[in-house]
Write a structure and sequence with these properties.
By secondary structure, the protein is of the alpha+beta class. It has four helices and three strands; from the N terminus they run H-E-E-H-E-H-H. Helix 1 crosses helix 2. It holds the Pfam family RBFA.
Length: 135
């Protein structure tokens, strides 16, 4: 099975959906932030491993705690995943914090600040016109 095959894409989506449900409903670990979402899942073509990209709404400490909680819950999640999805091999879960959403938000803020600083208020435009007329 190739990495970008239709079968692999469907497996990725199914594992992502199942893990999202398991994390939100089954895990009771206080370290795991309630605002944790799974951004993407990449299951290896041999179905041995799966990279699970998570996004955590909160500070850096909350992200670290959530990652530690998910790593300790990985065997439980793998067992539940085996019960929920019928695969030849149940992949070993590797959790990775995805920073792309935070990066996008910070870049958007920078662009907005840049646009706001480049725009002049109507009062400033009138003052510039008056200064140009005097010259």
């Amino acid at each position: 099975m190739r990495k970008n095959s239709i079968k692999n894409t469907r497996i990725n989506q199914e594992v992502q959906k199942e893990l999202s449900m398991l994390i939100s409903r089954e895990l009771k670990d206080p370290r795991i932030n309630s605002m944790t979402s799974i951004v993407a899942v990449e299951v290896a073509p041999d179905l041995k491993t799966a990279k699970v990209y998570i996004s955590v709404l909160g500070d850096e400490q909350s992200q670290k705690n959530t990652l530690a909680g998910l790593k300790s819950a990985a065997p439980f999640l793998r067992g539940q995943l085996a019960r929920g999805i019928n695969l030849r091999n149940t992949p070993e879960l590797v959790f990775v914090v995805d920073q792309s959403i935070e990066y996008g938000v910070s870049m958007s803020k920078l662009i907005n600040e840049l646009n706001a600083s480049s725009r002049k208020s109507p009062d400033e435009e009138v003052l510039d016109e008056i200064a140009n007329e005097d010259e």
